[in-house]
Every structure is written in C-alpha cells, then in structure tokens.
Amino acid sequence: MPQDIIKIAVVGPESTGKSAMSAYLAKHYQTVWVPEYAREYCEKLTAECTWQDEINMYHGQLALEQEMLPQANRLLICDTTFITIKIWSDQMFGQAPPEVLEKLPQHTYDFYLLLNIDLPWQDDPLRNFPNMREHFMTVWHHELQDLQANYVVISGQGQPRYDAAVEAVDHFLKNNS
How far is CA 135 from CA 2, 141, 145, in A? Predict the structure, then answer.
C-alpha cells in the first residue's frame, strides 16, 4: 500500500448509513470509496449464507480494497471492513474463520468512524437483526477496542451526521499529518 494513502473505515451495525456516509465522504474529499463486498455477494446468493460464503466475502473485501487503492486521492474511504465477517460469523456460526482472525490485527485502518444506531431502521432483504442493534453496537465497540483502533462514534441524522463525520476526519488529519 502506498504510504501516503490514509485508510478511513466507516463501520457499524446494520442500517446506520455506512454506504451513504462513505459516498458522501468520498465526494467531500474528492477520492474513491470501497463498497461493501458482502452486499453484492449476498444479493446473488440463492440459499442461506454458509461458512464458505463468509470466507469468500473476506477475500472479496480485501481484493476490492486493493483494486480501489491506486485510485485513491490521499484518502481511501472503506464502506465497512472485514471485521464485519468476524462479527457475522461469530453471530451465525459461533466462531470466525481462522484466516479472518489471523489477518485482523495485521490489516488495520488509520481511522474508524463507528456510526451510531440513532438512525431509524430501514428494512432491506439483506438485513437480519432489527432488534439487536444495541447488541451489535456493543460488539463493534469491543472489536475496535480489541484492535486498539483509533475511532470515534458518529451520531445525528441528516446533514449534522455528515458534518460530524467530516469534522472527525478533519480533526484526525490535522493531528496525524
């Protein structure tokens, strides 16, 4: 990875506006964003998600990130990360794939925006846990703390939410340049 590219991860539970936030930040900072590979992958599934699907999504997310990296303009905005694979696998299978666990501490991001669950739930065929948002918010805090990640929680709705994210990224950039 080029040393001058700063990786910003936009993470959080389901229905917290990660994709919209990623697109907004990419436009604001005139760069590209890496979409969530799992969304496209799961849209094509014709059966329940399997252990192998989780592994495939892990590899796909990493490959997509590597593909987008050369197009980045100082910042690479990532709509989620493969931490999501760990969280989903833990929830659905009681454990995560070993390659995910092995790579997590090695494949970090410079700054994480953890989107709060204060947005109204939006139904979507790929979303599974509308009544577990608080649980998953706690899980996200735990996972980021385990990685000793530099992160901030982004709250609010509409433009104030976007403004808070830009303010957090600007503050990070100012203090880490």
Answer: 36, 10, 15
